[in-house]
Amino acid sequence: MAEAAKKSAWDEKRTVFIERGMASEEQSQFVCVNGRTFQVPKGKNVEVPLPVYEVIANARLAPFVQISRDKYRREVKK
């Protein structure tokens, strides 16, 4: 029971896939969380610590959140 309490989020792994970009783009994605840096390769499944997975997931949602905020602002101005 005590060992389960010591386990941190960095011990938990998740699989992430980042789509490959154009040939002129970097072939890996730089991610930094609380001073820990990671180079996540694009175009293949990679196991990463949970905090890195969450940063990548949040970055993917950011454009949709912005669209939704813009739509809300336009409706409020009417």
Characterization of this structure:
The chain is of the alpha+beta class and 78 residues long. The chain is built from two helices and four strands; from the N terminus they run αββββα. The strands form two sheets. The chain has a two-stranded antiparallel sheet with strand order 1-4. A two-stranded antiparallel sheet has the order 2-3. A hairpin with a 2-residue loop joins β2 and β3 (36-41). The longest helix has 28 residues, at 50-77. The protein starts with a helix and ends with a helix.
State the main characteristics.
78 residues; alpha+beta; two-stranded antiparallel ribbon
Flag low-confidence runs: none
For the terminal residues, how far apart are their CA atoms? 57 Å
The topology string of helices and strands comes to HEEEEH
Report strand order across the widest sheet. Answer: 1-4
Query: What is the helix content?
Result: 40-55%
**Main beta sheet:** 2 strands, antiparallel
Oligomeric assembly: single chain
Per DSSP, the total helix count is 2
Strands, total number: 4
**Beta-sheet strand percentage?**
25-35%
- Global Rg: 17 Å
Structural class: alpha+beta
Give the averaged pLDDT, no decimals.
84
Shape, principal axes of CA atoms: flat
